[in-house]
Design brief:
alpha+beta, 701 residues, seven-stranded antiparallel beta sheet, five-stranded mixed beta sheet, 24 helices, elongated
Amino acid sequence: MQPSPEIVLEAVQLGEQLRRFAHAYYVLDNPLVPDAHYDQLFTRLQAIEAQYPDLKSADSPTQRVGGQALDGFQTVVHRVPMLSIRTETDTTAAGAIAFDSRVRKELELTDTDGPVAYVAELKFDGLALNVRYESGVLVQAATRGDGAAGEDVTHNIRTIGQIPLRLPAGVPPVLEVRGEVYMSRQDFDDLNDRQRDKIAKGIKGEKTFVNPRNAAAGAVRQLDARIAAQRPLRFYAYGLGEVADANGPIALFATHFEWLAALRQWGFAVNELAGVFEGAEALASFHQRIGAMRDQLPFDIDGVVYKVNSLAQQRQLGFVSREPRWAVAHKYPAQEQITTVVSIEVQVGRTGKLTPVAILEPVFVGGVTVTHATLHNEDEVNRKQVSPGAKVVVRRAGDVIPEIVGVVGRMGLDEESTLAQPTPNAPDELASGLFSMPRLCPVCDSVVLRIDGEADHRCTGGLFCSAQRKQAVIHFAQRRALDVEGLGEKLVDQLIASGRVNTLADLYTLTATELAGMERLGEKSAANLVQALETSKSTTLPRFLFGLGIRHVGEATAKALARHFGSLDAVIAADLSQLLEVGDVGPVVAQSLRTFFDQTHNLEVVQQLRDHGLNWQEGQAQSQGPKPLDGQTLVLTGTLPTLSRDEAKALIERLGGKVAGSVSKKTHAVVAGEAAGSKLEKAHGLGIPIWAENALLVLIK
């Protein structure tokens, strides 16, 4: 049957697309599309060529393993071709069953024959490499290239610590080891952090990398080995190329797994999760087990590989086209896909942080349908140039919140892709094309603030904003603030969900009767909570200030403010210059305080709390004269004779000092009581003065 003109045109276009994508992926180390998208196109072209063999040309992407030698590197002809293996795209157990069925059929096994033994391994997402040893010495390393010939990258491979430069005695005279060069996820993140620092400093020619595979491949294929040496590359061995002596090829072992054990013994890293499994059910179980732990692995994989263990059976099975019949790659659901940004919305978190979120056309990625993806902050949106209408690559790994990796057409070199124009009503989309956060909170209309030096924008209506209610109530009720015993997280959830508590002041209108009707709260517990709320009304100014949850105002700062100003009204009325007179307050804290008390919503809640009877002892603003412990840091350890730990800490702060949790060279003294432990020993070792409780009491007098 002859193909229609439409099918012929589709095959030509698929071939051109795949060649362009492969060139960017293998040669330029700058992928234009996710692997899953490439696989989709590749599978479609395979299907067309299978149905219409006349459309299969010698230069079709389906007839190549992928990639080509890069100018500047010497070409290496592989003695044993580095062939690709078939991909099983059915990500269920059926994929393993189908492979086992094909193997059994080719081996002419019946139901009465025993199960086939396989080696199951991880399918690393890195760069395939052939490393050649002669007389036990590393002489050459080459990339896969097009499978028949690759690039000589020996100078770079010598920088990888996991690849031995010399092998122990007893190895074959000629030994080619095949495996994967990769980069761990942590190393990749650290590398991109360094790259961002370089970009921020204006260093030209620097860029961040799309994924660990891209970064590893780019390092291996550098002409300057010093660049490769700066990248944390690793290597896992999983196979063989040529193995020979002076008389030709030799076979030392009967199974693939024996070869893996030998490679490990000779000093190569072989992944410890590889093992021998019998039959389809065992393969399917391995696939499922590795899939469950995929996101916890320190490196990227996109599937597992099954290989017939017996080398004799491998020879019997042979090859079809350029793929071995005795091996298959069993994939997992793709973790990256392409979709379109519908709009960008801003969400407010429980701490007041504003986060831009991309609303997406639904796309199936990482095993689920994704409709939203985080964009982290304003700088990230503009760095990636995301806007409504853009085609983007979305990544989701396990339970990780989906994120946008980049914009197609701006990830690298895809000149043919262009961004759609932003929708007319896209919120906060500036005429310049840059995205900006709203100036007012989208939930409560409070001022949105971004402090210098920080990437995040935050709502300043902490006591009023409904998005922050739960966090505000829990912080307010904690032991170190108002200490409302019995007001736990689950009860707070109920009170807020029911609409009963909208601000902190609403807590003091709760009755025992209505609380007793709450889930898992009896009459006695309800009465105890009402009493705890009543008790909390008599507090201290530092506890109240800390309980308000003002950003950057911790316990020590709250105490310093109370000591300095003496009253809440004085703190509220203080301008920036007056706030900066407080020893524990710097420009960031001062601005945070001023912004908080400038919000009418927050002042209303503070006044409501005072109207409900919250009170504390106020005094005169403190003298600005010197104190005995000004500028000194003390550490408490052991049980003191008369002072509790909190009382001793308060006394030290009243004397102008600070209390640290650990001993260091910066510690001025250690106040030690009974049963003092390692802190006392460390102080002795550093020659730091040791004080008894009485030393503090003398100072206060």
